[in-house]
Amino acid sequence: MALPPHDERTLPAVVLQDVDRRPLEQVLAELQALVDQHGHLIVVCSRAVPTSVERRLHTVRGLLETDRIALFRPPLPPLGLAVLARQLRQLASCDLSPGVLASAGRLLTHYLHAGALLGSVARLDHVPVGLKSHARSWMPGSQFGVVAHPVPQLVKIGPEAALEGPEFGTWLLVAKGQLPSDWVTGTLAPSWRAQGLREAPLPAESASWWGTGKLTEFCAYLPDLSVLYQLVTSVRQSRCHWCGIDVIGDRCVFCSATPPEYERRPEAGRSLQHRERRALTG
């Protein structure tokens, strides 16, 4: 999950190990020390991990009684999540407030195209699989190209196989598993007009997430810090009415508060105020 940094500006990541298996006191002490050292903490967690990990993180956050820990579990495959975590580490070196930085995770998710080359889709749960593809997955030598995010896609690999990719310039990160990556590097990368190609180790959760160990995972992403910064700072910021932190989007990532109803629907608020005035006067 902690990919190597792009440059010396990219901040290091802290990997939380065995959160659900270590004694609660140890995990509490570790997170408290991190909050004391850095002020705010953004925990990026894969949906492939057991639910006991998420429960433990919420328990720790509740026991610490703090709004300075943001828990973020986007619907991304493991490699895509690792890329997103590195992008947040890149942005952490800029002059962004903690709330804006944490909110940027949801924004940048839309610019990731994450998928895999699979030897079987029989146990794939995160992308719709038709009966024909399910049957073909039992045939020896079958391979499938799959995109899980942003729009699910699935094709059986053949001469005409193609996946829709990003409409903007990206780099392609490839993590090889127990399946040759020739189709990804030789066919997919050119069709997606990848501006560069990099390799990374396969995340430990990938086999579980994709339902097979016969895979090569890939993710198209924006590597340039200046582009990431421009994307984030171009979005209107607002102040959370509950905890007072600056955020982008409609939900505070630290306290989970949403804008009051009258802020999100001005016309509804005006209608309510009109009814109240009529009640008072009549």
How is this structure best described in words?
Residues 263-282 are annotated as: Disordered. The chain is α+β, with helices and mostly antiparallel strands. Among the domains are: 113-221, Hypothetical Protein Tm841, Chain: A,domain 3; 238-282, no CATH class. Helix content is 37%, strand content 16%. It has ten helices and ten strands. The protein has helices spanning 24-38, 51-64, 78-91, 98-109, 131-136, 182-191, 206-210, 225-233, 261-264, 266-281, and strands at residues 41-44, 69-72, 113-118, 144-149, 153-156, 171-176, 196-199, 215-221, 238-239, 246-247. The strands form three sheets. It has a six-stranded mixed sheet with strand order 5-4-3-8-6-7, with helices on both faces. It has a two-stranded parallel sheet with strand order 1-2. A hairpin with a 6-residue loop joins β9 and β10. The relative contact order is 0.14. Residues 266-282 have low confidence and may be disordered.
List segments where confidence is low: pLDDT < 50 over at least 5 consecutive residues. Answer: 266-282
* Strand residues, percent: 15-25%
Order of helices and strands: HEHEHHEHEEEHEHEHEEHH
CATH architecture of the domain at 113-221: 2-Layer Sandwich
* Estimated helix fraction: 25-40%
Distance between the termini: 63 Å
What overall geometry do the principal axes of the alpha carbons give? globular
CATH fold title of the domain at 113-221: Hypothetical Protein Tm841, Chain: A,domain 3
Mean pLDDT: 86
Biggest sheet, spatial arrangement of strands:
5-4-3-8-6-7
Please give the radius of gyration in angstroms.
Answer: 22 Å
Alpha-beta classification: alpha+beta
